[in-house]
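Entry 14: structure prediction run for IF3M factor. Input pasted below.
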Amino acid sequence: QPKRKAAFGSVGRRIPYRVLHVISQDGESLGNMHRAEALRLMDEHGLKLVLLRENVEPPVYRLMTGQQIHEEQLKRAEKKKASPKPGVGQKELSFSSAIAKNDLDTKTKQIAQWIEKKHHVKVTIRQAK
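Run finished. Output tokens:
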């Protein structure tokens, strides 16, 4: 069973599959071909093979230049940054404006702990009577 590919990048010459679906650098489908044929195309054009989807049969590879690979890595990093991180929630704290100093100190310590744990903190202060 082939190892899972963690990062997006050139796979070089290590291709665990016999038959691949290859896409040209322009995005045109070159169809299914044997691993040796794909490597020959890669060498002829001075390109690199990149795994796009391995959960399909046959797995999809694309011929790319180093610049295209770099741009794609930047796009994926940007998308990953934009998506909300799991485990980072929003904490909400509400207290009265007539809160005792002791209670206020306790709550500020709690807020500091949440911020250290990278939570978003929302503080609501209600006006006393």
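Notes: Strands lie at 19-23, 29-34, 48-53, 60-64, 90-96, 120-126. Will compare against the previous run tomorrow.
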